[in-house]
Design goal:
The protein is an alpha+beta fold. About 25% of the residues lie in helices and about 30% in strands. The strands form two sheets. The chain has a six-stranded antiparallel β-sheet with strand order 6-7-3-2-1-10, covered by helices on one side. β8 and β9 form a beta hairpin.
């Protein structure tokens, strides 16, 4: 049984160093404290939200991302009669003390200030042609960071101690936020299932052998 378990763990260990995929779901409730968007006149406005995906290469030399957000004016002209929803800046925050309910420092900015996607500048944003919002993408290279580096922040990112944050005129501290969490690759699932199958098979055989010995 111990040998089978060790085999399963070694299969999983073989996936270390592979490419890493991460994701985030952004909403008002994830902010600390949660936000309730209103217009500049005090009336309710549509809740803002979004999704983001991230990719870290196998050498951990860069991280790319794509994020799509809704009901935040990314140009200042999508809702010309209201400024509360105007996007001011957007960042990744991280730190050893970050949790889903606590805040952390800016470690890499990709829209507004600070802009750390600058060596080279890979930041791209595409406003919706209809509706309010847009899509953002960029690449966090090794030489970039807001007083830090990607290498220094990878332990926090991989441990779930980071989040992506979009700041607006109404909510300078952040209107929507999403904690960044790792997504196991399909091959990792396959390895894990294969290892568990080995463990289960050994356990069944031991169970049958035990019953046979008792009957004797």
């Amino acid at each position: 049984m111990k040998l089978a378990l060790a085999l399963a763990l070694s299969m999983l260990a073989g996936s270390v160093g592979a490419q890493t995929f991460l994701t985030a779901t952004l909403n008002n409730a994830s902010e600390s404290p949660p936000t309730v968007p209103t217009t500049s006149g005090g009336q309710p406005r549509a809740a803002s939200f979004g999704t983001a995906s991230f990719f870290i290469d196998s050498a951990a030399s860069f991280m790319t991302f794509t994020a799509t957000i809704f009901n935040i004016d990314v140009t200042g002209t999508q809702t010309p009669n209201d400024v509360n929803d105007n996007l001011g800046n957007a960042h990744i925050h991280a730190g050893p003390a970050v949790t889903p309910t606590t805040n952390g420092p800016v470690v890499w900015g990709f829209f507004g200030a600070p802009l750390n996607d600058n060596n080279p500048n890979d930041a791209v944003f595409t406003p919706f042609t209809t509706g309010v919002g847009g899509t953002f993408s960029g690449k966090w290279d090794m030489a970039e960071g807001n007083g830090t580096t990607l290498t220094a922040q990878l332990p926090n990112i991989l441990a779930g101690r980071s989040y992506i944050n979009f700041h607006t005129t109404q909510f300078g501290g952040g209107e929507i936020r999403g904690n960044i969490v790792a997504v196991p690759e399909p091959e990792t699932y396959a390895l894990m299932l294969a290892g568990l199958a080995v463990v289960a098979g050994v356990a069944r055989r031991r169970g049958r052998n035990g019953r046979a010995g008792s009957a004797a």
